């Protein structure tokens, strides 16, 4: 049962203080009373898009346990509002709160395609898979308006450069023809996140994401069109979706996923405070149990920054998750075989067309 102060349609339930700011945000009672008297809304809860103009768009990933070397994020912040999202902390570097600001103030990198093209044409660049997006979802609602992901995929196709996508939005199917063209040369790999098979759980954890039904349909359509799909069963949260592990693996396999991966939830930085506030408002009856079990997976703390362990977890509970995942792989993914993407074509297409000599 939700708290009376629950903000529908959002993950975070407040704007916690930016650790880099000397100022603290607080909604005072006299301000709320003024708004009531004047018939005004104290908070419209609307999403705003702000253009920003970074100098580069392709980022080198230095963390040794992330599983990607380069990433590209057309948008900073994410309207999906996933309560557990590790990217929330990055919003503080832009001067915003990792709470509600992260999902309501979306920074749009309008020059992303131009910056990407410059990178792909750079004579010193050697093709390596670039991941869309290593931080925030490249198919979040903003993409409907700005189409930065679509424009970027057109460039990856033009220059025959490998690209991988991470998303939980069915909007990716809008670009199916582009994806099929990339797949013909083994230049595309898609990761679709499926966190639960329960719509109720999905709405609480990921309030503005595509429904589970549409997500599974997305996996099926991509797979049928020859586009390799990895299902990300992540994060696994004890007491919330951990009981679904085998059913999740079985269902994504039945819908065409060629492989799957998972992580154990970790609540670094401000996310621990945001998640704690959220679960106390959405699941007060089990909040304490869930938080303690998360701590058991990370050496007694919600915050875990140890490379190699932070996403795997440790202890009895995490070990049980890994055992179930191994069982799921043996049972539902016996013939899983993922080929590396093609990096051999790009050098011949650096000027946008095939070099004959």
Automatic annotation (TrEMBL):
Name of the protein in question: DNA repair photolyase
Any one Gene Ontology molecular-function term assigned to this protein's record: metal ion binding
Pfam families in the record: Radical_SAM
Domain of life: Bacteria
Keyword Iron carried by entry: yes
Domain spans labelled Radical SAM core: 64-310
Record CDD domains: Radical_SAM
InterPro entries: Elp3/MiaA/NifB-like_rSAM, MJ0683-like, rSAM, rSAM_sf
Signal peptide region: none
Transmembrane segments: none
Source organism (scientific name): Cellulophaga baltica
PANTHER family: SLR0285 PROTEIN
Keywords: Iron, Iron-sulfur, Lyase, Metal-binding
